[in-house]
Every structure is written in structure tokens, then in C-alpha cells.
Write a structure and sequence with these properties.
Oligomer: single chain
Number of helices: 3
Shape: elongated
Largest sheet: none
Helix content: over 70%
Structural class: mainly alpha
């Protein structure tokens, strides 16, 4: 079993060409995950602003505490999505750093808290705002 024409297949190391292809794929993944880290909170804040601007027109249709608690729950779900994007971002960067070393490239890939923390802060601020408003209007 596992024999190829009567002999065991030889284990081969990845060739530099395949490693260079992996670098391209990792660059794409870093871009995708990194863009999610800023797109999700800014989209949430946009939805929040649009919802609040429409809230005055529909004030009789919805209870304010329900609208704000729904927006808060939506923010928590987005926070969960952002944690997944951050995990993918960090994983792709760690693989990229490893490949840069293996290929003898200048290490240029870094992952700093300042790259993503402000966006988490915006989202958490929006969640706290909507949660506070829901409690205020419920009482």
C-alpha cells in the first residue's frame, strides 16, 4: 500500500516556486482578513446612524428599547465575526513571516495591535452606546 511501481514514494520538500505561490496566496488572505477588520465596524456604525436617522420617522412603529437592544445584539455578532477575522489575519501573517524567512526575503510583514485595536474600539463603543440607550429607554 502506498507503493508506486514497486517502491515507496519519496518525501519531497516544497520547492521555492510553490513557496512563492504561497506568498501570493497569503498576501491575498492578509488583505481579505485585514479589510474585514475595518469594514465590519464602520459598516456597523453606518447601520447605526441610518437606523437612528430613520427612527424618528418610525417612532410609533417600534419601541426605542427594542431598536437599541437589536442594534446592540447585532454589534455583538459583528464582534464575534471580527474575532474570527483577527484570528485569520494573525494566522496568515505568522505563515507569511515563516515563508519570508525560508525564502531569505526581507521581513516586512508585521502584526501590531495598532493595526486593529481602533476598529475593535469603535465597535465596542457602538455596542455600549446602543446597550446603554436600550436600558435608558426600557426603564
Amino acid at each position: 500500500m502506498g507503493e508506486l511501481h514497486g517502491r515507496e514514494p519519496e518525501a519531497t520538500l516544497p520547492q521555492p516556486e510553490s513557496k512563492r505561490a504561497q506568498v501570493g496566496m497569503l498576501q491575498t488572505r492578509i488583505g481579505v482578513h485585514g479589510s474585514r477588520l475595518w469594514q465590519l465596524p464602520l459598516t456597523y456604525l453606518g447601520v447605526l446612524v441610518v437606523s437612528l436617522s430613520q427612527f424618528e420617522n418610525k417612532a410609533g412603529d417600534f419601541k426605542p428599547w427594542f431598536v437599541f437592544s437589536s442594534l446592540s445584539a447585532f454589534g455583538v455578532l459583528l464582534l464575534w465575526c471580527m474575532c474570527g477575522a483577527l484570528e485569520g489575519y494573525r494566522r496568515a501573517i505568522s505563515h507569511m513571516i515563516r515563508l519570508e524567512k525560508e525564502l531569505g526575503l526581507t521581513a516586512t510583514t508585521v502584526c501590531r495591535v495598532s493595526h486593529y485595536a481602533p476598529y475593535f474600539g469603535l465597535l465596542i463603543l457602538g455596542i455600549l452606546y446602543t446597550l446603554g440607550a436600550a436600558i435608558f429607554f426600557y426603564a
